[in-house]
């Protein structure tokens, strides 16, 4: 069904339960085995508290086969990333972004209540429960190909979060690098230590991506990444830049980001320059409820992790209250 650096996921028939399952077969390498054992422990903990099993993927069983840890999961649909890719990276309607956002924040709040930090939230790690989809007209399509006048929309907005191999319990001074690049919070890059808010930043990046169809910060380099943040969200606060650790000092000069002076190339400067401000980016894609959505994103993408909205508080945002009024 898919593969990653860890190994591969196979679709299998469970003869006892008489149902299809997904089995994650982990490579027989020490560090991947260790991550798999962490994942099993986290999944069992989550399963204990998530009675309905409607937030995180459910573990059915696990076994060790010829040095490969094999974890048996319920079978789900495609990841949000795969869905976007097969849809030519066309955006999701805002009402679907709202439904997915609510469930994602509920899952994150639930994990944080249990003192767990996922640390690797991204569209690849969020699966639709069902693979069914509808085709709807896509009026924004600029392409001439007839198939592009329609875009796919999932029939159900139900999602579950997967991949708890990097999940960790909250501890003091967690300083090592976490998260996949595009979804990595500024405090992680600046070496300021991280905690629950790093998950919230990732959620903000994911919601922008679902709304626009493309990753918000497409970069592979720290200074360029920080410059992109400034371009989209405004200047990094001085008090954050003052506290950077010695590895990140090279990105700061005279109390501000060393940009564009420190850029690697003219291409890099161009890549940053072409990014719009957050409000403008969202307004290009959202007609109704854009104001509420922008306000929510500004809370999720606040630079200072201590000022960033918590997952629990984000769920009370007016953006998620709109439906009740419409219904």
Automatic annotation (TrEMBL):
Select a single GO molecular function from the record's annotations and give it.
protein serine/threonine/tyrosine kinase activity
Q: What is the uppermost EC class here?
A: transferase
Reaction(s) catalysed by this chain's protein: L-seryl-[protein] + ATP = O-phospho-L-seryl-[protein] + ADP + H(+); L-tyrosyl-[protein] + ATP = O-phospho-L-tyrosyl-[protein] + ADP + H(+); L-threonyl-[protein] + ATP = O-phospho-L-threonyl-[protein] + ADP + H(+)
Q: According to the UniProt entry, what is the EC number of this protein?
A: 2.7.12.1
Q: Where is the Protein kinase domain?
A: 1-320
Which of UniProt's keywords are assigned here? ATP-binding, Kinase, Nucleotide-binding, Serine/threonine-protein kinase, Transferase
Query: Could you tell me the superkingdom of the organism this chain comes from?
Result: Eukaryota
Q: Which SUPFAM superfamilies match?
A: Protein kinase-like (PK-like)
What's this protein's family per the entry?
Belongs to the protein kinase superfamily. CMGC Ser/Thr protein kinase family. Lammer subfamily.
Protein's UniProt name? dual-specificity kinase
Supply the source organism for this entry: Medicago truncatula (Barrel medic)
């Amino acid at each position: 069904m898919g593969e990653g650096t860890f190994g591969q996921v196979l679709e299998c028939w469970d003869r006892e339960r008489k149902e299809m399952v997904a089995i994650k077969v982990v490579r027989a390498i020490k560090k991947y085995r260790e991550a798999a054992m962490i994942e099993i422990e986290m999944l069992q903990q989550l399963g204990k508290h998530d009675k309905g099993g409607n937030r995180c993927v459910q573990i059915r069983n696990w076994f060790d086969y010829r040095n490969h840890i094999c974890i048996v999961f319920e079978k789900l649909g495609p990841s949000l990333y795969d869905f976007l890719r097969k849809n030519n990276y066309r955006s999701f309607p805002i009402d679907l972004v709202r439904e997915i956002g609510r469930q994602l924040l509920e899952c994150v709040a639930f994990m944080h209540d249990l003192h767990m930090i996922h640390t690797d939230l991204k569209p690849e790690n969020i699966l639709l429960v069902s693979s069914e989809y509808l085709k709807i007209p896509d009026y924004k399509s600029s392409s001439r190909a007839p198939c592009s006048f329609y875009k796919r929309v999932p029939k159900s907005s139900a999602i579950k979060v997967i991949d708890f191999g990097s999940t960790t319990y909250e501890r003091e001074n967690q300083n090592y690098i976490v998260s996949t690049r595009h979804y990595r919070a500024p405090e992680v890059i600046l070496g300021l230590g991280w905690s629950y808010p790093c998950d919230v930043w990732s959620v903000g990046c994911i919601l922008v991506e679902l709304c626009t169809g493309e990753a918000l910060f497409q970069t592979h380099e720290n200074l360029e990444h920080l410059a992109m943040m400034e371009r989209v969200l405004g200047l990094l606060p001085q008090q954050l830049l003052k506290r950077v650790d010695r590895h990140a000092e090279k990105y700061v000069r005279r109390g501000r980001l060393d940009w564009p002076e420190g850029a690697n190339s003219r291409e890099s400067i161009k890549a940053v320059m072409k990014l719009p401000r957050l409000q403008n980016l969202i307004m290009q894609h959202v007609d109704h409820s854009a104001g509420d959505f922008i306000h929510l994103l500004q809370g999720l993408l606040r630079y200072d992790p201590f000022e960033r909205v918590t997952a629990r508080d984000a769920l009370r945002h007016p953006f998620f209250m709109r439906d009740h009024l419409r219904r």
